[in-house]
Amino acid sequence: MITLHDLQFIPFIPEKRITKAIDVLSDQLNKDMADKKPLFIGVLNGAFMFVSEVLKRFNHECEVSFVKLASYEGVNTSSRVRELIGLQEDISNRSVVILEDIIDTGITITELERTLSSRGCKEVKVATLFFKPEACIKEITIDYIGIEIPNRFIVGYGLDYNGLGRNLNEVYQLKEKNMTNLVLFGPPGAGKGTQAEVLKQKYDLVHISTGDVFRYNIKNATELGTLAKSYIDKGQLVPDEVTINMLSAEVDKTPEANGFIFDGFPRTEAQADALSELLSSKGVEVSAMIALEVDDEVLVQRLLERGETSGRADDADEAIIRNRIKVYYDETAILKNYYQKEDKYFGVDGVGAIDEITTRLSAVIDNL
Ligand code: IMP
Ligand code: MG
After folding, report:
1. Catalytic member of 57, 166, 306, 322
2. 19-to-13, 46, 56, 347 alpha-carbon distances in Å
3. How far apart (Å, rounded) are the C-alpha atoms in residues 171 and 231?
């Protein structure tokens, strides 16, 4: 997360995805503009980075110029469009390609296209790195679009919030609200269920146990549940997309929540990416991955004891227990690494009385 002036922003579109989109867009320009000696017109200030990336990829004769026609102040677009400045070239009979950083309401680009067309150029094409279809109120044709984004305020890669953020090499979005979204981990027998219950009460969070969500959807034969069941019945893994859609529906049920405890998900790096994308589409993010740490021998003893009273077959056999613990560590290692890279991994000692462990967990959460 980063702070610019008074607002907080969270990662949204990684650099790799942006450069990939620019590759595709530039390929198309190379094909379409090969013999046209186009004049690229970058719209300052926001488009400077996009312009330089496109120009680096354009392999034919061309020229480049910049204009200014800003319409933005703060995070809300204003309908006031300022006058065009900076264009000295004679553009009559030329092929012009406008390079914009972002098209939001479409007011700026409409104005710009009209002005340029009135100066007698042969054709005016529009290329934009980002486009917000939901925000656009003008009838416009955009010839080249890098990435379509939902109606969110973004910064980075040339785009700013009141002057700041242009130098970021990936795109961030405005953080919608302060949510505590925890990914809770713990080996079998670590007391994860117990602690999830306590934390849920204490912080007023919604506990999303993937197992429960699956069982609920299958039992109630929801569309996604039926789909999931069709894979399970064939003995196949349920695709991540189905699981994430179920979780997304679950998240949408309580949009006013203070946050969520994710339990049993993610299990793979791809799932962690999917979860981050899901939360990011709602303007929030994973706050922390918390793993309860308990020594293997303690776990085995706890589970064997539990097996004596619960009658759960998988708690009765020591070999099965040890294997479950091993599977847990194999899976967790990858995710620990994943969240450690984002400075979001927290291991918490899971040995002791229930309230002692809650105190340790709270110390982490209160510090987020
Ligand atoms: P439009 O006239 O509403 O299409 O706005 C276009 C201009 O508004 C862009 O050239 C940007 O300078 C600015 N703008 C629109 N959306 C954003 C955003 O999400 N972040 C930063 N600037 C934006
Ligand atoms: Mg601009």
Report:
1. 306
2. 10, 16, 12, 35
3. 36
